[in-house]
Every structure is written in C-alpha cells, then in structure tokens.
Amino acid sequence: MVANDPQLLKLLSMALSLEFACEVLTVDSARRAEEVSQRLTPTLVIIDEQLLDQDAQDLSVHLHRLGGLGQLPTLFLNVTTPSHAQRANHPYSTHFLGLSWRVEALYAAVQVLLGCVP
Question: 63-115, pLDDT tens digit by residue?
Fold first, then answer.
C-alpha cells in the first residue's frame, strides 16, 4: 500500500490484514515503494491517487517495469476524475475506487484482483 496519509495506511493495513489474513506492507512515498518492491515480490499493489511525491499512474508503470512485477494487479484509491482511469491503459489487472469508497468496495476490488471472485 502506497499513500502519504498515515491514517489511511493504518486503516487499510488493519482492514486488509483482518479480512484476508495477509501481511500488508505500507510505505509513505513512491521512493519507498520502489525500494520495497526491489526486495520483495508483492501479490497486489494499492496506490493512493493522491500521492504527493509522484503521479500514481507513473509510479504504477515504473513498479511494473521492475523485474518480476509485470503482471502485478494494481488498485488505485481516491481517483478524482474518470480521465485518470481512462489514461491508464495497463496490460495488467487494475481497479479504480473514487474518493468516497467504502470498505466493502475495497474488499470486493481486492478479491477480484487476486482472482478470488470470477
């Protein structure tokens, strides 16, 4: 999970850990996301569209160019306009949640991206 907001990171980490019984790694910057992704192979990446230090779409493209991450499913949170979603023509699985998403929508999106739901 990549976001600038520490409260969002804490909330999502707890929610996803409880719902999916998984380890959730959180980072607060695009630079840290790249560092962690070079050492570990995540199953899913969640990027807050409101990142301050780099455009979320650019970060996604960059992360997917790293070795072994080409097909990494990606969830974008807090997408403000449809143009953000439309310009993202990615060859990997993506899902977009707007500014007023609910935790149920987050769970459903994660399930789809991880292949838990047909």
Answer: 888 877 888 899 999 887 655 555 556 667 888 888 888 899 999 999 999 88
- Of 61, 56, 5, 53, nearest to 29 (Cα)? 53
In eight-state DSSP terms, residue 81 is: S
Strand, helix or coil for residue 78: strand
Q: What is the 3-state secondary structure (H, E, C) of 33-56?
A: HHHHHHHCCCCCEEEECCCCCCCH
**How far apart are alpha carbons 97 and 45 in whole angstroms?**
14
Contact assessment for residue 73 and residue 45, using Cβ atoms and an 8 Å cutoff: yes
Amino acid in the structure at residue 74:
T
Torsion angle of the four alpha carbons 75, 79, 81, 85, in this order, in degrees rounded to the nearest 10: -10
Residues in the chain: 118
Using a 10 angstrom Cβ sphere, with 0-12 exposed, 13-18 middle and 19 or more buried, the burial of residue 102 is exposed
Q: Which two tokens stand for residue 13?
A: 């980490």
Cα–Cα separations (whole angstroms), residue 67 to 34, 44, 49, 92: 11, 15, 23, 15
